[in-house]
């Protein structure tokens, strides 16, 4: 038996996607692009709250691990309390809806992410027994994945800084 496919003339002349559909996709993309800096800011807030809390939950392990790091080991207790506290404070400041507080916290978050990248790179390059106490899923990443993850967040932070400055200057 031979099946016939019946294609109407109307269906042959129509493009795969209509202009109306393309317009809605473009408007949706513009909507996301305009809100991307806010999504990045909230992403940083979540990331820092998550890692800061995880470090506080395993504080003794975090301090013990930091004490084994060359050159930084003597400051293990200061780092052990300081880094998680800083991460949690930044997370809270990032969600405060005042422009200058949020922007300052975003600057600090982006700089801190850069410091973490430098730290991880030095660990990979010079330390045999690599230590990571970031907490949860992030701690279970491989070293290259962890560095790539941090670089992506650094780039996202820079993007958000540029876009929030432009956004605020237009108001």
Notes on the structure:
With 171 residues, this protein is mainly α. Helix content is 77%, strand content 0%.
Question: Which descriptors would you attach to this protein?
Answer:
171 residues; mainly alpha; 7 helices; 77% helix; elongated
Name the poorly predicted regions.
none
| Discrete helix count | 7
Helicity, as a percent range: over 70%
- Strand content is under 5%
User: What's the order of the H and E elements?
Assistant: HHHHHHH
Mean pLDDT: 83
The total count of strands amounts to: 0
Class by SSE composition: mainly alpha
Summarize the structure.
This protein has helices at 9-13, 19-57, 59-67, 76-94, 99-126, 136-139, 143-170. By secondary structure, the protein is an all-alpha fold.
Topology:
Layout: H1 9-13, H2 19-57, H3 59-67, H4 76-94, H5 99-126, H6 136-139, H7 143-170
């Amino acid at each position: 038996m031979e099946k016939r496919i019946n294609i109407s003339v109307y269906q042959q002349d129509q493009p795969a996607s209509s202009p109306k559909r393309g317009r809605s996709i473009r408007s949706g993309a513009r909507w996301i692009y305009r809100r991307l800096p806010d999504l990045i800011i909230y992403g940083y807030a979540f990331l820092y709250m998550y890692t800061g809390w995880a470090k506080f939950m395993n504080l003794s392990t975090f301090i013990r691990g930091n004490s084994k790091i060359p050159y930084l080991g003597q400051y293990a207790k200061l780092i052990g309390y300081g880094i998680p506290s800083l991460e949690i404070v930044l997370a809270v400041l990032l969600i405060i809806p005042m422009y200058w507080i949020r922007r300052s916290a975003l600057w600090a978050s982006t700089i801190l992410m850069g410091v973490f990248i430098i730290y991880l790179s030095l660990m990979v390059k010079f330390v045999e027994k690599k230590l990571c106490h970031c907490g949860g899923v992030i701690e279970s990443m491989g070293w290259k994945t962890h560095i790539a993850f941090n670089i992506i967040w650094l780039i996202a932070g820079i993007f958000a800084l540029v876009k929030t400055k432009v956004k605020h200057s237009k108001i």
